[in-house]
């Protein structure tokens, strides 16, 4: 019988009012139910928001360095459980064990980083143009924050939203993705065990359309931080905009890697394989378009096919596996649907393209890493996010055409360039329309201590992570103090 996981509301682990649950299933082996989670409704969300509102003034009154202490303690607890939590993440989301353990470690780093923010300078003093006037800024928490997170980084994303929100003096209600709610549960559990006061952090599971919707609609909520698809994020923004509360939506991408003719081809092929296929292409920063200078197109494609052919697809718990399953049947169907669309629109399939079957593959959602060539901007595979291990190859006459192709989509999350030419490197950095820019590195693989976020249709609102993350979770107040009369 699968373990039942509860909501965490006002310092207590509780069932949903309806008593209903939903299963969290292993995408590599659908015979395994990892746990049953609460199918919460509007009433559960309401209770969580009320608890958060009640707890907020007391939490904000604690000195920030002491708020940070809770994050340090939780980080320590998570670190002592890293192996187990990594394994759990692989089982609920499908990514390989090294990737999962790396992500848990990243969540731990994030808690430590923002624990430290509690003791760092939150505000600054600015000289006044008037005599005897002392001017400075204060950061005030916003109040209750709603966090809505996706399944693809089930530990890191909840951590990078919860930690800055809490250390800034806000209280939180988080609704994690229904496909992978256990990783966020473990962070909430660690914070509870670290002694976080009741009501400061509340965790409610349930479907986006019901629990997620009730959360963003609750009147106590003063800010919403959302990561997920454009469809849901854009709709969510429109819903809360009339209330003039703060919103941050981090959404999809169609991230390009440009390879110029001076590139080391072996190195470039490794970068493409890493960016396009690791984590089954299910990273918002995954590379889905390779834009290649025509002078090196054929030899680079040969290397790319050779390396892709060596990738092992399977259960991420097994050693030597490079690519796990798609997260569920719907994502697998989306991947296969786009492969079909690309074929019909005239792209040429170079490798992959099929669901893997036979033996253990029959129990999971496995798909071959797939490469198309002959992709042109008008094709949907060149413009729309697939969120699977599907790479579109495009040929560029020269650097200028490569830049036009790279920027010619509605998204702008991450982009990379492979080149040793300093002039092109700087031109790329200046002109690429992306929030995350990498050179001689894959499009994916960002670090916790730097700002994160995209441009254009990929993101709306302020940046997450790094030193600027607190800007979203606080409001600046400006003080003019004359100390004489
Ligand atoms: P999603 O379907 O948009 O779901 C994201 C979250 O929103 C889930 O918790 C979901 O709940 C919830 N939700 C769904 N409908 C809702 C509604 N009407 N009101 C409120 N909440 C609602 O996205 P996903 O499939 O989990 O994640 C994949 C997407 O996330 C991709 O597009 C990827 O590019 C993007 N992503 C972006 C970033 C970034 O930082 N830019 C990072 C990671 C992922 P349920 O799970 O219950 O449906």
What does this structure look like?
The structure is a single chain. The chain is α/β, with parallel strands linked by helices and 485 residues long. It has two domains: 4-251 and 458-480, Aldehyde Dehydrogenase, Chain A, domain 1; 255-439, Aldehyde Dehydrogenase, Chain A, domain 2. Helix content is 37%, strand content 22%. It contains 14 helices and 23 strands. The protein has helices at residues 42-61, 64-80, 82-93, 97-117, 156-167, 182-193, 208-217, 230-240, 265-277, 297-309, 329-344, 399-407, 422-431, 469-473; strands at 4-5, 7-9, 12-14, 21-25, 33-38, 125-127, 133-141, 144-148, 171-175, 201-203, 221-227, 246-250, 255-259, 287-293, 348-351, 370-373, 390-396, 411-412, 414-418, 436-439, 455-456, 459-460, 474-482. The strands form six sheets. Strands 15-16-17-14-13-19-20 form a seven-stranded mixed beta sheet, sandwiched between helices. Strand 11, helix 8 (230-240) and strand 12 form a beta-alpha-beta unit. The longest helix has 21 residues, at 97-117. The radius of gyration is 23 Å and the shape is globular. Bound molecules: NADP nicotinamide-adenine-dinucleotide phosphate. NADP nicotinamide-adenine-dinucleotide phosphate is lined by residues 148-153, 175, 177-179, 207-209, 212-213, 216, 227-229, 232, 236, 250-253, 284, 385, 387, 413, 454, 458.
């Amino acid at each position: 019988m699968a373990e039942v996981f509860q909501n965490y509301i006002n310092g207590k682990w509780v069932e949903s009012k309806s008593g209903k649950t939903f299963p969290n299933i292993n995408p590599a082996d659908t015979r395994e139910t990892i746990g049953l989670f609460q199918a919460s409704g509007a009433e559960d969300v309401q209770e969580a928001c009320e608890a958060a509102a009640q707890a907020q003034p007391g939490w904000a009154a604690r000195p920030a360095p002491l708020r940070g202490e809770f994050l340090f303690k939780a980080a320590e607890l998570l670190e002592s459980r890293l192996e187990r939590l990594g394994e759990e993440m692989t089982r609920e989301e499908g990514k390989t064990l090294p990737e999962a353990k790396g992500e848990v470690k990243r969540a731990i780093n994030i808690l430590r980083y923002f624990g430290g923010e509690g003791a760092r300078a939150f505000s600054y003093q600015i000289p006044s143009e008037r005599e005897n006037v002392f001017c400075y800024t204060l950061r005030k928490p916003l109040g209750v924050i709603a966090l809505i997170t996706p399944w693809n980084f089930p530990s890191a994303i909840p951590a990078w939203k919860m930690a800055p929100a809490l250390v800034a003096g806000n209280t939180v209600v988080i609704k994690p993705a229904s496909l992978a709610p256990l990783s966020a549960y473990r962070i909430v559990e660690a914070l509870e065990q670290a002694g976080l006061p009741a009501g400061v952090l509340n965790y409610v599971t349930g479907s986006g359309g019901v629990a997620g919707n009730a959360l963003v609609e609750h009147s106590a909520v003063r800010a919403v931080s959302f990561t997920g698809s454009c469809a849901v994020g854009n709709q969510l923004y429109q819903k809360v905009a009339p209330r003039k509360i703060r919103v941050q939506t981090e959404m999809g991408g169609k991230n390009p890697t440009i390879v110029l003719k001076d590139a080391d081809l072996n190195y470039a092929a490794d970068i493409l394989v890493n960016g396009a296929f690791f984590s089954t292409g299910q990273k918002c920063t995954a590379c889905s378009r390779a834009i290649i200078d025509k002078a090196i197109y054929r030899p680079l494609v040969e290397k790319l096919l050779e390396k892709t052919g060596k990738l092992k697809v399977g259960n991420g718990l097994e050693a030597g596996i490079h690519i796990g399953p798609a997260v569920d049947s719907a994502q697998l169907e989306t991947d296969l649907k786009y492969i079909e669309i690309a074929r019909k629109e005239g792209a040429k399939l170079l490798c992959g393209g099929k669901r893997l079957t036979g033996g253990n593959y029959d129990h999971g959602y496995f798909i071959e890493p797939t490469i198309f060539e002959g992709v042109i901007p008008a094709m949907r595979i060149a413009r729309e996010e697939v969120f699977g291990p599907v790479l579109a190859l495009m040929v560029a006459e020269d650097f200028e055409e490569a830049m036009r192709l790279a920027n010619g989509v509605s998204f702008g999350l991450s982009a990379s360039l492979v080149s040793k030419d300093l002039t092109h490197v700087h031109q790329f950095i200046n002109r690429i329309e992306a929030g995350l820019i990498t050179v001689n590195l894959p499009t994916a693989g960002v670090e916790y201590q730097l700002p994160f976020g995209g441009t254009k249709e990929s993101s709306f609102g302020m940046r997450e992570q790094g030193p600027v993350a607190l800007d979203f979770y606080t409001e600046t107040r400006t003080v003019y103090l004359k100390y004489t009369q």
